[in-house]
Structure formats: structure tokens, C-alpha cells
């Protein structure tokens, strides 16, 4: 039920099925106000993951670089972070600040996320909390150097991961999804929510 992967704390089945359904409804509300976009890297390569956000800031990448912005690319402010997510932060993050951003990552069945480091935030002493919904995903985490050995685990719908301490700057990524592995979204795919302190 609880697992440690290179310093990443994983709480399996933290959300019961009913809580997952309720959270999915909140995510649909976020996406009505802030539609998913397919971001491109600064070099112009599209990511396979589509993204949106809630909170004071959302993470953006385009020809202008990687950064946090207070508005959706369409000019609208990001919608607020749902209370149920703030409660999960309170319960699990052991942070001394409130989250300023909830990144919404949408994985179509063939989407991936290459090994990367999250370093666009100003305060690495604050954790990142991630919630997975929908199809299972092979999550890989290494160390603070790209060449460090990695370990991997399947993240399932309702699992929470907390990245704190040394793991906060660990390289990590999503290798692949397991198709039709969850009944939460019958048409498949995966949503990952990450709560972060940004400033
Ligand atoms: C380890 N998301 O949004 S969540 C990301 O499943 C991201 O969408 C993946 O990597 C996803 O940046 C993985 C788990 C996660 C999130 C942030 C981390 C692991 C992390 C930050 C540092 C180390
Ligand atoms: Fe990341």
C-alpha cells in the first residue's frame, strides 16, 4: 500500500473509486475553463502529453521556453485548484506552503513522457504531489544525474506520489500506458495531476 522508489513515496489506492469519480468531475470542470493544449518544446517538437492547469500558475512550454504563467495561452486566468486536491496536499505533502499550481497532464493511450527533471520552480524544498487517474502507467525514477540508475513502478488510478527531499530533483518519466487497465474512463487514457509550489 505504501512504497519507496528512489526516495519517491508512493501511496497506492490513496483514493477510493468514488473519490476518483468525484475528482475526475473536478478535472472536467477545470478543462471546460482551461482547455487542454498540446505544448511544443522550445525547439518546436510537440509533446505527446496534452496539458492544462489550475491555480495561480500553470506550466507552459512553447517557442518562448519553459515557464510558469498566470494565464492560459488563450488569455484567461487558470481556474482555482479544487478543494479536494487542497485536502490531499494537507493530508500527504508535509509542506509548509500551499500549492500554487495544479498541472493537468492528459495521456492518450500512446502518449509518453521522456526522462526529465522538474526545475522551473523557485523553491525545491517544497514537495510535489501527484495523483494518477485512469489507465496504469509505467513510471520511471532515477537520481539527480540523468545517468543514474532508474527504477520503475506501475502507477494506478487513485495512486498518489510525493516527491520530496532528494527525490524532488530526480530524473523521472512515463514509459508507457497499459491500455484498458482502468474502468474510470471507459475510452482509455490517463490523467496525472501535480500540485506544486512555484514561487
Ligand atoms: C519525481 N508528470 O508533470 S507524475 C510532470 O505522470 C511529470 O504525468 C508525470 O513528470 C506524469 O512533471 C509523473 C510523478 C512525478 C511528478 C513530479 C516529480 C514525479 C516526480 C518531480 C520530481 C521527481
Ligand atoms: Fe516531471
UniProtKB/TrEMBL annotation:
<feature type="binding site">
    <location>
        <position position="172"/>
    </location>
    <ligand>
        <name>Fe cation</name>
    </ligand>
</feature>
<feature type="binding site">
    <location>
        <position position="120"/>
    </location>
    <ligand>
        <name>substrate</name>
    </ligand>
</feature>
<feature type="binding site">
    <location>
        <position position="59"/>
    </location>
    <ligand>
        <name>substrate</name>
    </ligand>
</feature>
<dbReference type="GO" id="GO:0005737">
    <property type="term" value="C:cytoplasm"/>
</dbReference>
<dbReference type="InterPro" id="IPR005123">
    <property type="entry name" value="Oxoglu/Fe-dep_dioxygenase_dom"/>
</dbReference>
<feature type="binding site">
    <location>
        <position position="118"/>
    </location>
    <ligand>
        <name>Fe cation</name>
    </ligand>
</feature>
<feature type="binding site">
    <location>
        <begin position="66"/>
        <end position="68"/>
    </location>
    <ligand>
        <name>substrate</name>
    </ligand>
</feature>
<dbReference type="GO" id="GO:0008198">
    <property type="term" value="F:ferrous iron binding"/>
</dbReference>
<dbReference type="InterPro" id="IPR027450">
    <property type="entry name" value="AlkB-like"/>
</dbReference>
<keyword id="KW-0223">Dioxygenase</keyword>
<feature type="binding site">
    <location>
        <begin position="190"/>
        <end position="196"/>
    </location>
    <ligand>
        <name>2-oxoglutarate</name>
    </ligand>
</feature>
<feature type="domain" description="Fe2OG dioxygenase">
    <location>
        <begin position="98"/>
        <end position="199"/>
    </location>
</feature>
<dbReference type="Pfam" id="PF13532">
    <property type="entry name" value="2OG-FeII_Oxy_2"/>
</dbReference>
<feature type="binding site">
    <location>
        <begin position="105"/>
        <end position="107"/>
    </location>
    <ligand>
        <name>2-oxoglutarate</name>
    </ligand>
</feature>
<dbReference type="GO" id="GO:0035515">
    <property type="term" value="F:oxidative RNA demethylase activity"/>
</dbReference>
<keyword id="KW-0560">Oxidoreductase</keyword>
<feature type="binding site">
    <location>
        <position position="146"/>
    </location>
    <ligand>
        <name>substrate</name>
    </ligand>
</feature>
<dbReference type="GO" id="GO:0035513">
    <property type="term" value="P:oxidative RNA demethylation"/>
</dbReference>
<dbReference type="InterPro" id="IPR037151">
    <property type="entry name" value="AlkB-like_sf"/>
</dbReference>
<feature type="binding site">
    <location>
        <position position="116"/>
    </location>
    <ligand>
        <name>Fe cation</name>
    </ligand>
</feature>
<protein>
    <submittedName>
        <fullName>Alpha-ketoglutarate-dependent dioxygenase AlkB homolog</fullName>
        <ecNumber>1.14.11.33</ecNumber>
    </submittedName>
</protein>
<dbReference type="GO" id="GO:0035516">
    <property type="term" value="F:broad specificity oxidative DNA demethylase activity"/>
</dbReference>
<keyword id="KW-0479">Metal-binding</keyword>
<keyword id="KW-0408">Iron</keyword>
<dbReference type="InterPro" id="IPR004574">
    <property type="entry name" value="Alkb"/>
</dbReference>
